[in-house]
Amino acid sequence: MTEATASEFAVDPEETIDLLQRMVRIPSPYFEEHDLAEFVYEWLDDRDLDPEYHHVSEPEITEYEGDNVIARLEGSDPDAPTLLLNAHMDTVKLVEDWEEDPCSGRIEDGKLYGQGACDMKAGLAAVMKAFEALAEVEANGELRGDVLLTAVVDEEGPYGLGTDRLIRDGITDDCDAAIVTEPGPILAQEDIDNPALLLGARGRYLYDITVKGKAAHGSQPHKGVSALVDAGRLAERLTEIEVGSHEKLGDGSVCPLMLNSGSQTLSVPERARLMVDRHVVIGESEERVRADAEQAVADLDLDSEVEIRFREAPDPGIKYGPYVTDEDHPLVGALQDATRSVAGTDPALGYFASVGDFNYLGDRAGLPTVIVGPDGENIHGAGEFVYTDEVVEVADIVTETAAKFCG
């Protein structure tokens, strides 16, 4: 497909921002996405885009039941590549510090405000409008490969259950590459501006450590062994371990997140629970991550007993592994060409500092995965907003990219 033909199917800016505003006005904290999933389904259905609900169930830990929304455009050539467009419907829990309705969708000075406006209902609106435009490409017989749209639940929750279920149910098996429209530059390893392509991300493990000491009366601490004190010493020692480094992903990191020793009012704490974040780069395996913590315990020679585990997960396969997509991959080339066409400039290239559904796709599913999304500020916080012009730009870039990559 030529560049001129692709631009023929550019998205309507007003319709794109109206769609985003309507979705921001539907609260959808993780595990509470039902209303937005229904909206996305009906929006696709009204345009004869044949959506389906894809059920997500996790009864053991979270007792969660929800639904992804998926739709597929079928190309004319079964040997042509299939492109996955992935965006999540959920947001973080509504933040209390908003000075206005957190779901207002207010637009001012080129910014649209609301919880999840940037992370990532803007990216969701962009791929929905791109998918609608690509349906016209398909109808004209100019789409050789398939395009699969997945609007997923629980990316912001503890386990990324929506995209995890896509992988475990085999829905991504026939895909050849993926675009995830998360806001990229705001969480990149280095300062970059849109238009930007993020070609990889660090991974993550979460230490869940139990420290067992010996209880005693608080007036005679020398008769006990404080699990709290030993857990605090371990937390500090873990921040000093030597982390890995990667030429693209940068350095790994360690960050203690929680230390809890109960609520006895006058007792030496007998038990403590320590949770520590460990962001990793390629080359840092689960075995190494565990060994680093075990060595930290050995170095301290604590009087307490220490049990090192990782956070409980619904399935052993649920892991945020690091990944890098080759700059020479055809999807990257298609995105670069589309960015030049739409924005008139070369995109910046970068790498994501944290984790998300893109890790599941780039590592677990083995898909060349690129993050390209509209940017904003205050994500996960009060005053979150997205730049409206970037929402439209991303929608156009995704449309042209898919038309080229699958065409």
UniProtKB/TrEMBL annotation:
Entry cofactors: Zn(2+)
Residue ranges occupied by any Peptidase M20 dimerisation domain in the UniProt entry: 200-301
Keyword Zinc found: yes
Key word Kinase present: no
Record SUPFAM superfamilies: Bacterial exopeptidase dimerisation domain, Zn-dependent exopeptidases
InterPro entries: ArgE/DapE_CS, Bact_exopeptidase_dim_dom, Peptidase_M20, Peptidase_M20_dimer, Peptidase_M20A
Name under which the protein is recorded: M20/M25/M40 family metallo-hydrolase
Keywords, in A-Z order: Hydrolase, Metal-binding, Zinc
Entries under PROSITE patterns matching the protein: ARGE_DAPE_CPG2_1
Species annotation: Halorussus gelatinilyticus
UniProt-listed Gene3D superfamilies: 3.30.70.360, Zn peptidases (3.40.630.10)
Listed GO MF terms: hydrolase activity; metal ion binding
Family: Belongs to the peptidase M20A family.
